[in-house]
Amino acid sequence: MDYAAGRGATLSTPPPIARFLTPLKYGAVPNPCNYRQPTECIKEERLLLMAGSQTKIDIRPDQLVAPIDLYTGLMFESLRKLYPDLNFARILILSAKHGLIGKEWPKIAPYHCRHLTQRKAKHLIESGIDECFDDWGRLPDGRSAGPSPRQMLKPYSGCKWRDVFIVASKECRQVFHAFVTQLIEIGCVGPNASINEVEGDIAQQRRQFEDYLRGLV
How far is CA 184 from CA 39, 52, 60, 84, 155, in A? Predict the structure, then answer.
């Protein structure tokens, strides 16, 4: 990943804030990344979006833990190694079972879903950031829906996101592209924000992620 002056993309002129979000279609989601040098900002203005990993901590099947403690993949190893207190950004994780979740909430148990499927990615993208999580369209009667992506992705009061970094590939990357595109549309991303992502094979992605994290020190 090379930081450039936008690769043709720009956020220098902020879009008008939308009352109704433009619907997005699976397979046709725009890439919101502008590949700028990460913007210096306070932690309340930095958003890290990560795909959950296939590898997970070895605990009892019914034991509940914070999502950030469940995943043990390479990217999570790098994150813990370079920022063990995790106190530098809002960190959100896309789970193949639970959808978008926080790093500490909700507590979840180990599960066997390996990757986000096309069906689930399509469901998240075409539902948009305002749709509450409905267990992939299978919410049982009497059970309340989870929070919407907008609720989880909305910056703190008085803030906008000034640095967004995506650690994901394949379906998860497309979902995060959709979420960030709609965050821009509703005015939650600053006009000069940096929006970047990892690219290439897993070794390249890990190196790019670690380079990004080291650059924040």
Answer: 16, 24, 41, 30, 12
